[in-house]
Amino acid sequence: MVTAVGIRLHHRKQRGLKTLDVRVKRATENTMRVALWCSTRPELSAVLYPGLPSHPDHEIALATLDGMGAMMAIVHRGGGEAITKMIRRLELITHAPSLGGVDTLVSEPRFSSHDHLSSEERAALGVPDGFLRISVGIEDPDDIIADLDHALRG
């Protein structure tokens, strides 16, 4: 049986699909800009994004991916305490346990996906205590960068 609620939900999903391509392209473009900016920051020891030539899998990503996506990561030289302070100073970007969507979000694996591991085990997997995942959204990239800049500078 088809209900009015079911029809409304179906139409809502179709409306979202109409703009999916535009949203993904915008988020991917934003992520490249944010990753390039982050790669200039002395506070960060690593910027992980397959769109950057410095990424170990950059050539594989170029050959296999249709766009580099909107997920990236940074590693703060100051470790976990420094990344926690940075997160507290963010104003536009939201600290969230899950990533994705149209808003820029950050997540710390040491308190989410990797919380069952010790600091040493996480580091051995390439997820040191200063590691932060960033799901870049479709906001103005200058606003995202300004928020990260403010948070990094303290």
Note down, in words, how this protein is organized.
The protein is an alpha+beta fold and 154 residues long. It is built from 6 helices and 5 strands, in the order ααβαβαββαβα. The protein has helices at residues 4-18, 20-38, 58-64, 79-89, 119-124, 141-153; strands at residues 44-48, 71-76, 94-95, 105-107, 131-135. It has a 5-stranded mixed beta sheet. Helix 4 packs across helix 6. The longest helix has 19 residues, at 20-38. It is globular. The model has no long low-confidence stretch (mean pLDDT 91).
Quick synopsis:
This protein has 154 residues and is of the alpha+beta class. It is built from six helices and five strands; from the N terminus they run ααβαβαββαβα.
Quickly list its features.
154 residues; five-stranded mixed β-sheet; 5 strands; 46% helix; globular
What is the 3D form? globular
Summing up helix and strand content along with how strands pair, one would put the structural category as: alpha+beta
* Rg from alpha-carbon coordinates: 17 Å
- Strand fraction equals 5-15%
Output the helix-strand order: HHEHEHEEHEH
Query: Helix segment count?
Result: 6
Would you count the extended β strands for me? 5
Q: Give the neighbour order of strands across the main sheet.
A: 1-2-5-4-3
What's the N-to-C terminus distance?
A: 57 Å
Estimate the mean pLDDT confidence: 91
Largest sheet: 5 strands, mixed
Helical amount among residues, as a percent range? 40-55%
The parts where pLDDT drops under 50 for at least 5 residues are none
